[in-house]
Each structure stands twice: as C-alpha cells, then as structure tokens.
Amino acid sequence: MTTAQFYCQYCTASLLGKKYVLKDDSLFCVTCYDRVFSNYCEECKKPIESDSKDLCYKDRHWHEGCFKCTKCNHSLVEKPFAAKDERLLCTECYSNECSSKCFHCKRTIMPGSRKMEFKGNYWHETCFVCENCRQPIGTKPLISKESGNFCVPCFEKEFAHYCNFCKKVITSGGITFCDQLWHKECFLCSGCRKDLCEEQFMSRDDYPFCVDCYNHLYANKCVACSKPISGLTGAKFICFQDSQWHSECFNCGKCSVSLVGKGFLTQNKEIFCQKCGSGMDSDI
C-alpha cells in the first residue's frame, strides 16, 4: 500500500501517524470506524468503540464491564451463564429462579444434576426413595399412596391385598365378593368361566355363577313351562307343595284363567280354577 493510498476510506483523511482500523481490506480512522461500524451495548446502549472489548452472545453485544448477571450484578466475563427471557443470569441465580425445586427437600435441583419426575413433581435422585425402606427408587416400578411412594416389594409387604382366585397381589381396583377380593379379570363364573365383571351373577355356596349356569345347575323349574325360575329383576313366582310356577304361568289347566291371588283346586299336580275343578276329585 502506497503513501497515497494511506487514507480513511470513509472521510478520506490521511492516516499517517494516526491510529486506524483495517476492516475488509479497507482502512478507517478510529472516529469513522466507531461511528459507522461499532455495535451498541445491550446494557448501557452506548457504542462499543474500537479500543473496547466487544463481548457477543447470540448477535447481542456488551462492553466487558457491562457483561453482568441481571439479578446479582456479578460479572459474567469468562464465567458460565444462562439466558432466560433475554436476560443473562449467572448459574446460581438461574438455578434459584428457574430450576425445579425438589418435592422432598424443597431445595433447588441444580442444572446438570439428575432429577426424577413423577406426577408433575420433581425430586433429587437421592430424595426419590421408598417411604418404607428409604432406598432410592430410580426408574424401578413404584406404587403411590397418599402417604408416599413405595417400591413394589415394600408395598406388597405393607399394604397389598391378594386375589382369592390367583393369590397374586391386587395393586389397584378389584372386586369384593363374600368378603373376598378378586382381580377383575379373575372374577369368573364357576361354571363356564365367563367374565362376570360387568354381568349379573348369582352365588351358591360362596361361588359366583353367571345367570345361565346358575339357572341350569340350581334354579327351580316352573311346573307349567319347565323354564328356570330366577329371582333376578324382581321376578315373582308361586310356590305350592314343593312346586313352583312363574306368576304368569300360574293359570287354570283347563280355561287358562290366571289363578294368582285366587282360590284353586289341584289334581295330579295340575291346578284348576274352582269352576273348572268342580266335580273333580281334588286336593285343596
């Protein structure tokens, strides 16, 4: 570069014997460079001149003396920091303001440390322990109660109920029948093994049966229609001398008139109204 070319690219003033700045192969006097190219500090809003250190983070610029934590005002130069809502925070302030608090000890869970999450709450790994044995649960299966979280062995030992059918632990839900507990999937008809969880059922000798099996195995049969007489849904029936009828089947064997609430006569296990039975040899 010749002496004739040694001038400011912006104001054309000679740079001989003066400070200058080289940018993109062009020369600028300090005054022009600062006015044209200087970045403005995010903190003090003043230009960061060529003789000052320019600290940059995500296209934002600070004077070295302005690069501070926005909460405690301590310098962040050559120190770890974090950004939240465009604010710069030292790691301690960021942790206190933004990090999760341990549900057990209420202390901050520091960035970078392992934390456990369960039901929207957070724990230090060392605080997330079984309420009974106090051993860390980590990622192992757990069961939660109002009194705390429990590892499976402790829960089974302290609280669990066992299914009357399969003898295994009932961890949730279940069905109670005759003061015994069943898993829903274990509560089956003792005859056909049909699932009774959402079905009507009958019992016999403390065993559950679906309606069809119970009627087939144990229900009395109507003398008239030979179909089972079930007590479900409030069905009414008539009993007389060890015989049973559906109320709608309790009719005169000759004229078919209903005999419910009326006098009747019997002959050879048949029933008749008094009019049709007159003159017959009958037992009242």
TrEMBL record:
GO terms for molecular function: transcription coactivator activity; zinc ion binding. It is found in: Nucleus. Residues 39-100, 161-220, 223-283 form the LIM zinc-binding domain. Keywords: LIM domain, Metal-binding, Nucleus, Repeat, Zinc, Zinc-finger. Pfam families: LIM, LIM_FHL2-3_N. One of its GO terms (cellular component) is Z disc. The keyword Metal-binding applies. One of its GO terms (biological process) is positive regulation of transcription by RNA polymerase II. It comes from the Eukaryota. PANTHER family: FOUR AND A HALF LIM DOMAINS PROTEIN, FOUR AND A HALF LIM DOMAINS PROTEIN 5. May be involved in the regulation of spermatogenesis. Stimulates CREM transcriptional activity in a phosphorylation-independent manner. Interacts with CREM (via the third LIM domain). Interacts (via second LIM domain) with SPAG8. This is Four and a half LIM domains protein 5. The lineage of its organism: Eukaryota, Metazoa, Chordata, Craniata, Vertebrata.
